[in-house]
Automatic annotation (TrEMBL), chain A:
Protein name stated in the entry: Rab7 family GTPase
CDD domains in UniProt: Rab7
One GO MF term: GTP binding
Organism expressing this protein natively: Thraustotheca clavata
Gene3D superfamilies linked: P-loop containing nucleotide triphosphate hydrolases (3.40.50.300)
Keyword list, A-Z: GTP-binding, Lipoprotein, Nucleotide-binding, Prenylation
Coiled coil region boundaries: none
PROSITE patterns according to UniProt: RAB (PS51419), RAS (PS51421), RHO (PS51420)
UniProtKB/TrEMBL annotation, chain B:
Database matches in PANTHER family: PH DOMAIN-CONTAINING PROTEIN, TBC1 DOMAIN FAMILY MEMBER GTPASE-ACTIVATING PROTEIN
Alphabetical UniProt keywords: Calcium
Gene3D superfamilies documented for this protein: EF-hand, putative rabgap domain of human tbc1 domain family member 14 like domains, Ypt/Rab-GAP domain of gyp1p, domain 3
Pfam families (UniProt xref): RabGAP-TBC (PF00566)
Ranges of residues in domain Rab-GAP TBC: 1-204
The species this protein was found in: Thraustotheca clavata
SUPFAM superfamilies: EF-hand, Ypt/Rab-GAP domain of gyp1p
The keyword ATP-binding belongs to this UniProt entry's keyword annotation: no
Transmembrane segments annotated in the record for this chain: none
UniProt domain EF-hand: residue ranges: 384-419
Protein name: Uncharacterized protein
Record carries keyword Transferase: no
GO molecular function, one term: GTPase activator activity
């Protein structure tokens, strides 16, 4: 394989059903939007190669099911996650209130060494429906600060439909995760380096 | 009788109820609303037979009748099975069924009711009852997910060898989600899907119930070479193995029906074998803990009590002679349950047993699992007066009409009478057993409440007394029930029942806590037990070895005679400060609980005398093996032992 020693980042998208997780992933990886996505069952992933600080990084983005009973996908799945994207719908306050439970469940399942500083990012999706907004921006700002006062979580307001903020959001999470991964590598070198050349495989969705 | 129809309430009744506000939990209703409009692709594929992708612009307006049908079917199912409600992805499963369960007489080509019942078969007969449950989240599914990983190791060693354990777990869990939750809908080509569903529904029930494992292994078997290539050449990991398996599924060949049959044989997969693995996966502390967490807070039991009962339930599952039971899908059946209920809630006599069993909501196989048993026992043993009155009312209001008619009131009066009788008898036997067997004849029996004071001669033939008892007292209860009917419409509403019952000593006595009854004045007690020399249940008080709720690590020295006598048919109520137990104390259980708790506390105290069962493997096996027991259950206990220790 041409590219040995590539960096693989495993990013997991979580959030309530119908907030647009599948759409965000598809918009970021394939630059397309559809009204026809089926409800996601279990998890699917797409990969995307990006360059950050002149380093080639393969992002493996996992889209998950939103119904509450699917919150636990099995410990094996979360193990080795490098970053987590929490998504809510700005027109749906319940999906915002559930962020806590998604975050807690993730930390419980993934069991990262340093849960306080695990790379999270929050996306408020569907800003294309601004006139139906029911979660004000201040609210999410406060929430991010409340979770970690010194280093508040980054948040973006996005529209998977109109591709607003999607690219920046995923770039940011990749950067944070990479930074965090390098910090951790001082202690456990092999933790995030995947000797994977398999990224050359097809990366299409399954449906 | 209407009661028998309780779990089989007709589609029309259920539809009517599903329209009432609050009948479907809000979360389920919301999710259905969200998912039904997302079935466009499935409906195009399975109903209109037009291939479409998510990039196509689909006209969904022509699918409105189908979408309405899907919504109705799912809402009705959510009413029928509250424990499951709606499972995300099943809007697509129902879409597939609309195109599969055909009915030419209907303009739409299907009949909603037929589709509904086929869906019920899948949910209740093919998969275990907690497979899709909301709490603990998809527990039965997670068990099968682990079973799949084990099966890959056992049946597909080539594949298992190239994947590290954690990758194998990850791959099999992701595949299980994709394939099992959707019952393969949308995951394999249409012809293969038809073949699989036909096999699942038309093969013998036991073959159908494990078809999902055979199908998964079959696909993985075919994908093995590609996965091995990917891993050895490209340093791929579990995620790519997962993608390869999904791709193989999407392009699998069409001869699924016949292949499933031959593959099941070649893998030597039987329902018994799967069930044996499931039972062992279920004792994983994680699942046990999840179950306790889910039940704690919605029952009156505390954690330690739930853990104790859970262990006892596991013990029952393992030690029951499997030869008499074609299937123990994580639950126990009526025959096993009957003596347990007779021990734990002796006041509910045989007359109420059938109704009680319905309240436990057995699954389609007639099995009651641990969670359902606990929910019912929580009310029956420890419920508040209102809960008990509610339950008693629901027993007879099988159709949930909110009122009892005269026929149902007669049934209820009969049960109340029996309970009343049993209560008095139970209180009597709190005296040492010797006194009950030596009581004199010709004592007078006095009932507790003054207004129904009835003096019944204790005649020589006890059955005659019971006859007479049965004849006299139910009428008294019936009169009480009729008097409660405040609006004289010959129907007893719950409100009338509740308000009448709480002011009626005769009925209150039936629902009184036994401990209160013991504290009550002795004048309430009858002077002798009618059951004393009978084979009917006698309630004896006996302290268990685990009175403080902490399971014994080691069993005390137990002689064989003692063990045998403990295991005999004498019914016990092990009750310490309100604690209940599903078992009569047996040596086997002490051994079992010792092995189950050993992993956390493996120390052996040296000062044990030689007779004691030491908490290590060798004596355990010797001890168990020296006893003549069903070899199958022996193997089960031994297997579980290994499972917990490793």
């Amino acid at each position: 394989m041409a590219h040995r020693k590539k960096v693989l980042l495993k990013v997991i998208i979580l959030g309530d059903s119908g907030v647009g997780k599948t759409s965000l992933m598809n918009q970021y990886v394939n630059q397309k939007f559809s009204n026809q996505y089926k409800a996601t069952i279990g998890a699917d992933f797409l990969t995307k190669e990006i360059t950050i600080d002149e380093k080639l990084v393969t992002m493996q983005i996992w889209d998950t099911a939103g119904q509450e009973r699917f919150q636990s996908l099995g410990v094996a799945f979360y193990r080795g996650a490098d970053a987590c994207v929490l998504v809510y719908d700005i027109t749906n306050p319940i999906s915002f209130e559930k962020l806590d439970s998604w975050r807690d469940e993730f930390l419980a399942q993934a069991g990262p060494r340093d849960p306080e500083n695990f790379p999270f990012i929050v996306l408020g999706n569907k800003v294309d429906q601004e006139n139906e907004r029911r979660v004000p921006t201040q609210k999410i700002e406060l929430w991010c600060k409340a979770k970690n006062a010194q280093q508040p979580m980054s948040f973006f307001e996005t529209s998977a439909k109109e591709a607003t903020g999607v690219e920046e959001a995923f770039q940011t999470i990749a950067k944070i995760a990479l930074q965090k991964g390098q910090d951790d590598d001082i202690f456990v070198p092999a933790a995030t380096i995947d000797l994977s050349g398999a990224a050359t495989k097809s990366s299409g969705g399954c449906c | 009788m209407a009661l028998a129809a309780r779990s089989n309430r007709s589609f029309r009744d259920l539809s009517r109820r599903s329209l009432l506000p609050g009948a479907v939990l809000e979360a389920d209703a919301r999710q259905i609303e969200l998912d039904v409009p997302r079935t466009g692709l499935s409906l195009y594929r399975y109903v209109l037979h037009i291939p479409a992708t998510e990039d196509d612009v689909l006209d969904l307006t022509i699918l409105k009748p189908q979408m309405d049908s899907i919504k109705r079917i799912l809402m009705v199912y959510a009413v029928r099975n509250v424990r499951v409600g709606y499972v995300q992805g099943h809007a697509d499963v129902v879409s597939f069924l609309l195109g599969k369960v055909l009915d030419d007489t209907n303009a739409l080509g299907y009949n909603e009711e037929h589709v509904f019942w086929v869906y019920c078969i899948i949910m209740e007969r093919i998969f275990p009852s907690d497979f899709f449950a909301r709490m603990p989240k998809l527990q039965g599914f997670h068990v099968d997910m682990d079973v799949l990983a084990k099966l890959i190791q056992l049946k597909l060693p080539r594949l298992a060898q190239v994947l590290p354990e954690s990758d194998l777990q990850c791959m099999s869990s992701l595949l299980a989600f994709k394939w099992f939750i959707t019952v393969f809908v949308g995951e394999v080509p249409d012809k293969a899907l038809n073949g699989y569903w036909e096999y699942m529904l038309t093969a013998t029930p036991s073959a159908g119930a494990i078809a999902h494992f055979v199908m998964a292994l079959m696909i993985l078997d075919a994908a093995t070479d590609d996965i091995i290539d990917s891993i050895t050449q490209d340093d791929g990991d579990a995620s790519f193995a997962y993608k390869i398996a999904l791709e193989h599924a999407a392009y699998m060949d069409d001869e699924v029906f016949d292949n499933l049959k031959t593959k099941a044989e070649s893998y030597a997969l039987t329902e018994e074998a799967i069930e044996a693995i499931r039972v062992n996966v279920r004792v994983n502390p994680h699942y046990m803990e999840q179950e306790v967490c889910a039940l704690h807070g919605i029952t009156h039991f505390d954690r330690s009590q739930l853990e104790q009962l859970q262990l006892e339930f596991q013990f029952i599952l393992r030690t029951t002679n499997r030869n008499n039971l074609p299937k123990l899908a994580g639950g126990i059946n009526k025959e096993i349950l009957r003596p347990i209920l007779a021990r734990v809630i002796p006041e509910w006599g045989p007359k109420s047993m059938d109704q009680l069993f319905e309240v436990l909501q057995p699954d389609a196989r007639g099995h009651v699992d641990f969670q359902r048993l606990m929910l019912a026992l929580s009310v029956l043993c420890k419920g508040t007066l209102e809960e008990k009155l509610r339950l008693c009312f629901d027993l007879y209001d099988a159709e949930k009409l909110g009122h009892l008619d005269v026929e149902q009131m007669i049934l209820m009066a009969g049960s109340l009478c029996e309970m009343y009788h049993n209560k008095l008898t139970a209180t009597d036997t709190t005296a040492p057993p010797t006194t009950t067997t030596t009581t004199k004849k010709n004592n007078k029996y006095r009932s507790a409440s003054a207004d129904t004071a009835q003096i019944i001669d204790d005649e020589d033939d006890k059955s005659a007394i019971f006859d007479r008892f049965g004849r006299v007292l139910p009428t008294a209860f019936m009169q009480k029930l009729l008097r409660m009917d405040a609006d004289c419409d010959r129907k007893l509403s719950f409100k009338e029942w509740y308000q009448g019952a709480i002011t009626e000593p005769l009925i209150l006595r039936c629902f009184e806590d036994e401990d209160e009854a013991i504290a009550a004045p002795t004048s309430r007690r009858p002077s002798r037990s009618f059951w004393a020399e009978d084979k009917q249940p006698i309630v004896l008080r006996r302290r268990s070895n685990s009175s403080d709720g902490v399971l014994p690590i080691r069993s005390p020295p137990i002689s064989r005679e003692k063990a045998l006598s403990a295991a005999s048919d004498t019914p016990y109520k092990r009750k310490d400060g309100g604690r209940i137990s599903l078992l009569s104390p047996t040596t086997e259980f002490e051994l079992f609980s010792a092995t189950m708790t050993m992993s956390s506390q493996p120390t052996v105290t040296p000062e044990d005398d030689q007779e004691s069962v030491e908490a290590n493997a060798t004596p355990f096996y010797e001890e168990v093996e020296s006893r003549p027991r069903n070899p199958d259950s022996l193997c089960q206990v031994a297997w579980c032992y290994g499972c917990v220790i490793s």
